Amino acid sequence: MKFLWGGDLKLHTVHVVDVCSALWHLTTHGEVKKIYNLVDKNDTDQKKLNHLLEELFQIKTGFVNSVMCRLAKLNIKAATDTVNDRHLRPWSALCQSHKIETTPISPFLAPELLYDHSLSVDSSALTATGFQLKHPNITTDLLQEALDYWIAQGVFPGLTEEEKNEAVGADEDDEEVVDDEE
User: Fold this and answer.
1) Alpha helices in 3-42 (DSSP H)
2) How does pLDDT run across 19-39, given as a tens digit for each residue?
């Protein structure tokens, strides 16, 4: 799996349990009309996310080279179309083979999601109210827990060993993956 831009691009995360807890906490500790941001303490960036994905799915991750990043920046719509074409058909086939007729999970990306912009916030206003995270860091175990939930709900395919091997082998002929942006 290859990403655009580089490992230092921020993609802050937060656990859904902490989102619910924060909303409940703010009903009694928050100020009306004040904006509170919420993020875990992981300071997640693409490099950390890649590491978690490698552990979770037993895949190799990396970043496309700087030439590919520049081309994507010049025509983000075409880059997004390429990514969507590459992922939507196999996802649909995988869901079909697992008899998943409808799912809220999709590999579809809007062009805005591929821009070279960090997605990061500061949650100090929320923590100043006394809120404490139940899950301060994203971990492989928490991601596995989420996957297990989605599989149990019948909205995410639990891959067989053969499907995992096919998915890993599908990219063997692709261009070289680099560890960091050139």
Assistant:
1) 16-29
2) 999 999 999 999 999 999 999
